[in-house]
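Example record for the data management plan.
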Amino acid sequence: MNYFYDRNNIEVGLDECARGVLLGRIYAAAVIFPYEFNNNKLDKLIVDSKKLSKKKRLLLYDYIKERSIDYAISWIDEKEIDEKGIQYCNMKVFHDCLNKLKKKPTFILVDGTQFKKYNDIPHLCVKKGDSKYKSIAAASVLAKVEHDNYIDELCKSNSDLLKYDLLNNMGYGTKKHIESIKLHGFCKYHRLSYKIKSLNKNVYNK
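Corresponding structural encoding:
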């Protein structure tokens, strides 16, 4: 994995979590790392969050925040996603993160294939970027931990949500989650603009 794309720039890595979930917020994070890495065990451990256990993600979460020059985290809820669409919200949550940074980047590395230009700062979209650049991988860890913490807190304050198996699926459309929707209908946190082929129209009216 590369540490940087171009050391002559102040690079920020961007990634999101929960774009494809059926319920709740989308999260994004931005991370600017220093030019020199310690090349220690924790630095080497920073990879795509999907390849890490929950225990390792939590360990890296604090380390990344301490290690970075600057970082930012942002989210958008399901109501705005339903109103404006996931693509719009995905770009907005990226821009929100960049707006929060105190250290202004001169180059943006983005996970994925789409990005809306930000303040005339050059950017590069990188397919599977969280497996190619440390800053994007670090952003994926921050966004994933924040999202999963949000789901945990949501279930603690709304125990009825446990019927959707959220603590295991984190809002994604697993078989058990979809079967629970068929049985109980949607709750107020579901993204009603998302169409699930295996569900009939009656479910959407509950």
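Summary line stored alongside the record: The longest strand covers residues 11-17.
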